Amino acid sequence: MGDRVRSVRLGHYAVPLDQAVSDAKVATGRQRPLTQIDVLTCEIVTDDGLTGLGFSYTTRAGCRAQFAHAKEIAENLLGEDPSDIGRLYDRLLWAGASVGRSGAATQAIAAADTALWDVKARRAGLPLAKLLGAHRDAVRVYNTSGGYLQAPIEEVKERAAASLADGIGGIKIKVGQPDMREDSRRLAAVREHIGADTPLMVDANQQWDRQAALRFGRAVEELGLVWIEEPLDAYDAEGHAQLAAALDTPIATGEMLTGVPDLVRLIDLRAVGFLQPDVPRVGGITPYLKVAALADHAHLQVTPHFVMEIHVHLAAAYPRDSWVEHIEWLSPLFEERLRIDGGRMLVPDRPGLGLTLSERRHEWLVDDVAFGTAE
Ligand SMILES: [Mg+2]
């Protein structure tokens, strides 16, 4: 009765970006341009011969900590029934309880948790979205990767047009430069280029104080933006709530928060119209589902951050029709490509997440370790 986890393999891969990108945190000197994404993978094999793949990620720093933590706790999965995801999540959490329930500790667990959900969906022969209870087979999709601040406005316009021609349904550009007038110029140029009817979002990556955010928000009300993202420090829940009450344009945030209670605070304070949790960052699919249930109860939209490969399933299983974020940076790590049509990303019809690691990944291997016997 019950299957058993036979082996667990962890990998750390440094996946290079085609082009270094900069958001407002770079424009104001807080961070260096982003050149690669570091990914922690977890591959599980069971006695029944099923496999599961999960992953977590970091930008700039932290993946070595995630890998080290995952390496310390992974053996707790061996010999356990992979269907008991709730029990195994707690087991992994308590194994490393002294380093807490958020941040790198739970991001390390996220890779294993996602792999366990992948096993469960593959066992059922269902895409993860259908295992969770899908509301739709395709999710609205917007592009972010073409709208970074290092790109001249002509390039941003060209890439926006190319995204729309590829079937993507909305465009997001970065703002939050030291000179707010430059943000306004770029925003107006993109709005004119893509037309008044194309959904358009902006993302300030936490660069404004409360007064500056209110000034910007009032100045752009007539542009009909879908949302203004991260106008304030990620942890200023009260500030986001005040801004949301003062503006007609909805507020979006949540991507930087690494624990369930931080996201629940945004829900409780009605600080956002669009909540943006991130499965790897918040500790896996299991905690993400808690957040999503509470967000739905509060009548909020949930538009998950990055990681479209996992989030297309979760957005399809969320009651309200929302958006996934098109950023193609992780694509080289996988064999499969997500399909986009008519402004929507299609949920893969393959079992589980529908992902397998690419052969190319070996070029980017930083570290790996295996537990148990793979044969
Ligand atoms: Mg963002």
Automatic annotation (TrEMBL):
<dbReference type="GO" id="GO:0016052">
    <property type="term" value="P:carbohydrate catabolic process"/>
</dbReference>
<dbReference type="InterPro" id="IPR046945">
    <property type="entry name" value="RHMD-like"/>
</dbReference>
<dbReference type="Pfam" id="PF02746">
    <property type="entry name" value="MR_MLE_N"/>
</dbReference>
<keyword id="KW-0479">Metal-binding</keyword>
<dbReference type="InterPro" id="IPR013341">
    <property type="entry name" value="Mandelate_racemase_N_dom"/>
</dbReference>
<dbReference type="GO" id="GO:0000287">
    <property type="term" value="F:magnesium ion binding"/>
</dbReference>
<feature type="domain" description="Mandelate racemase/muconate lactonizing enzyme C-terminal">
    <location>
        <begin position="153"/>
        <end position="250"/>
    </location>
</feature>
<dbReference type="GO" id="GO:0009063">
    <property type="term" value="P:amino acid catabolic process"/>
</dbReference>
<dbReference type="InterPro" id="IPR029017">
    <property type="entry name" value="Enolase-like_N"/>
</dbReference>
<dbReference type="Pfam" id="PF13378">
    <property type="entry name" value="MR_MLE_C"/>
</dbReference>
<keyword id="KW-0460">Magnesium</keyword>
<protein>
    <submittedName>
        <fullName>Mandelate racemase/muconate lactonizing enzyme family protein</fullName>
    </submittedName>
</protein>
<dbReference type="InterPro" id="IPR036849">
    <property type="entry name" value="Enolase-like_C_sf"/>
</dbReference>
<dbReference type="GO" id="GO:0016836">
    <property type="term" value="F:hydro-lyase activity"/>
</dbReference>
<dbReference type="InterPro" id="IPR018110">
    <property type="entry name" value="Mandel_Rmase/mucon_lact_enz_CS"/>
</dbReference>
<dbReference type="InterPro" id="IPR013342">
    <property type="entry name" value="Mandelate_racemase_C"/>
</dbReference>
<dbReference type="InterPro" id="IPR029065">
    <property type="entry name" value="Enolase_C-like"/>
</dbReference>
